[in-house]
Input
Amino acid sequence: MDLKSRIRDLPDFPKPGILFRDITTLLADPEALRYTIDTLSERCAPFQPDYIVGIESRGFMFGVPLAHQLNVGFAPVRKPGKLPAAVHRAEYALEYGTDTLELHQDAFRPGSRVVIVDDLIATGGTAAATVQLVQQTGCEVVGFGFVVELTFLEGQKQLPTDVPVISLVQY
Ligand code: AMP
Output
């Protein structure tokens, strides 16, 4: 299936010079949505995860149905102050300043295998911070699943070299 035709391109959002790849049009298309989840599921199953971790907030939209399909658990990685129980915290650099992500300390059973999911990898900073969070729980990151990869930003360079990365659409 041609997923690119289901993703809407919006120039200069959220700021001038950024070409935003909008996946809401993919989510609204039942065939494209089913194909996306089925394909992510087929390609992530060999990683044999115990959990999917989804990154706020578009990572939730793909991560939960993927976890359902793979019959594994799900944990959300959230912006600061949203998770109610004790959290691990990871800071990462933005173009200007820093941002922080949080994960519940008891998100996973000890020794679990975790696959990290987001809608899109750009510079890789968000996914790399999520790796730090999973590692703080003592669990292992065994794969990454993205719907979209902006290959020209070389985000995979921020990720552990020995962990497989899948993406369904590349720009
Ligand atoms: P990064 O940390 O640079 O890999 O950025 C990844 C996060 O930013 C993801 O959660 C994406 O949803 C969002 N993002 C970054 N660039 C874009 C883009 N061009 N279009 C849509 N979302 C983007």
Observations:
- The CA atoms of residues 41 and 69 lie 7 Å apart.
- The helical segments are 24-27, 30-44, 58-70, 125-136.
- The domain at 48-170 is CATH 3.40.50.2020 (Rossmann fold).
- The first strand starts at residue 8 and ends at 11.
